[in-house]
Structure formats: structure tokens, C-alpha cells
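Hi support team,

I submitted a single chain yesterday and got back a structure, but I'm not sure I'm reading the C-alpha cell output correctly. Could someone confirm the output below corresponds to the sequence I sent? I've pasted both exactly as they appear in my results page.

Thanks,
R.
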Amino acid sequence: MSRFIPGLGKVVRDHGTLDPALGRIGSLEVRLATTAKEIRRAQKLRFKVFYEEMSAAPTGAALLSRRDVDDFDAICDHLLVLDHDAKAKPFRKPKPQVVGTYRLLRQEVADRHSGFYTAAEYDIAPMIKAHPNLRFLELGRSCVLQPYRNKRTVELLWHGIWTYVLHHRIDVMIGCASLEGTDPRNLALPLSFLHHYASAPTEWQASAVPERFTAMDILAKEAVDPKAALHALPPMIKGYLRLGASFGRGAVIDRQFGTTDVLVILPVSAINPRYIDHFGPTANRHAS
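Hi R., thanks for writing in. Yes, this is the structure output for that exact sequence:
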């Protein structure tokens, strides 16, 4: 893992035999960031979506830099979707615009540093310990620019993730997904649906850390209308459900980001076969 050097345009991520250019649909390309400049562009997109569009509360440093930055950026890989046909800003040379991003943290990298980001919200250690022969990947900090929140962009992001998963022989994907808002009562329907209909099986179960645990079973199962609940879920969480993901016990209120988080657990063995067929068993559907 190369050292993260802010402000330099040189390569700070060497992906070895994995070509950083992972796939393309029309003008949109999905790739792994290789330079500090590309990582900064992902951070700028995150700031735009989390702080300007949504209700996250920026620190002074974030306000000054107009970037969403934390210590995990230094050790994670950064997946980008770029639009090569984006309109150039006045008096500037046209360049591809970063319109989507995901942050990827492999278990062996997390173990060498300060663990997974998710561990601050969920007690995932017992689940990982119970599967010593499996390789975990944490997905996080995902966002897409508003005009690009469509099937094509999400499909490219998942194509990139699937290519990465195959290359690194990942067995399980985990991470926190967010519902907007910090009052669980306003999220009673989607949270109760995830609790009653999409809870992880015992061997994959993990709970929110006790001091941050917020009950999800706000409504009784018979009071939950599954169709209405699905409609109330954010597109990203609906996407995880379609793939075959299940969810941990308890939600976590993240006041800085103005969200209520849930734990996503997605073993590769649980992925719906039609999605594997769709992207191709060797991730060749949208290959560059």
C-alpha cells in the first residue's frame, strides 16, 4: 500500500496486476483512483453530496478544503465513476468529471492499520472471528451526484466492485448504509421492515455497539406493509437487498452526517445468481 501524499499528482496507489480502468458504459467509466489528485476529487464529490446537498455538519477543516476527509482515506482504495462528456467549466480545459464514488477497505489492510471504519458503530469482531478463512471487504462513503442517480451509474459502480471482489478473492462484503434523518420514529417503516424481513442469519449477525444501539423493531411485523417499506428505502439499500444482503441488529444515529445507519452483510455466496450472470462470472460485461 503506497503512502497517501495529499497535494501531489503522482501515483499513490499501485493496484498491481489489476488494471485501474475497470469498465465503461458510453461516456461513463468506472476506475480505481491511482493519484492523490483523483482521491481529492472523490473527497470533493463526497463534500458536495454529504454537506451541501444532505445535512452533514462539516468541521472547520472540511469547510476550508471543501472536501470530506478522514484518516481511512489514507489506507482505502477509491472507486470512481467519471463522465467523459461532462461540460467543461468556463475558461477551463474539458476533463472527465467524477460523478460517483465508493471507498473500499480490504481486511488485510484494515488489520495492518486501525481496523474497519464500521467497528466504531457495530461489534463486527465476533462475526469476523467466526469466519477465519474468509476475506472481508468493507464498502463505505458511497455517493453519486444527483443528475447521475440512475441505473447506469449504479450498474457501473457494482461492475467495479464485482471486478475488485473477484480480483482480490473477497468472500464477504460489509459496511454501513444510511437512511437520511436522525429520528428513528420518522424511519419506523423502513427500519422495522429491515428488522423483520431482512435480518441476517445467526452466523452473520452483528449488533450495534451498546452505547449507540437504536432499536429497529419500532413497528410490529404485522404493522409493516412490505411494498410501502421498500418504496421508503434509499436506492442503495434496495440495491443491496436485491443482491442478497441482510442486515445487522440495531441502527446507529450518526449526528454529524444527519443519518441513521444500518449494517449491511453480503457474503458473495449469498449474491443472487442472476446478478452474477448479469455482470459475468469474470466481470466481463462492461470491461474496458
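A quick pointer for reading it: DSSP finds nine helices and nine strands in the chain. Let us know if anything else looks off.

Best,
Support desk
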